[in-house]
Design a protein that fits this description.
single chain; 82 residues; mainly alpha; 3 helices
C-alpha cells in the first residue's frame, strides 16, 4: 500500500514538473513570505509601541506617595543626612 502511495506521489510530482511555480491554497508561494513579513512587522510595531510605558518621569507625574509617606521619607532623609 505504501508503495502505491509513493508511486501516486511521484506521478503527481512528475505531472507538476512543467509548472515553474507550485501554488498552495491558490496563492503563489512568495505571497506566504510577504504576508508573514507583514504580520511579524505589525507585531514588532505593536511591541515597540508599548516600550517605556512603565517608566515614571518625575516631570510628567506627580508624587505617588501619600502625605504621611512623604513626611516619613523626609524624616528618614534628615536622620541619615541624605
Amino acid at each position: 500500500m505504501f508503495s502505491s502511495l509513493l508511486a501516486a506521489g511521484a506521478d503527481l510530482l512528475a505531472s507538476e514538473e512543467g509548472s515553474h511555480q507550485l501554488e498552495l491554497l491558490g496563492m503563489p508561494t512568495y505571497w506566504f513570505a510577504l504576508i508573514g513579513f507583514l504580520v511579524f512587522g505589525l507585531l514588532m510595531a505593536v511591541t515597540v509601541s508599548f516600550s517605556g510605558r512603565g517608566l515614571v518621569r518625575p516631570d510628567k507625574a506627580g508624587s505617588g506617595l501619600a502625605a504621611h509617606e512623604q513626611e516619613a521619607l523626609k524624616e528618614y532623609k534628615s536622620r541619615h543626612k541624605r
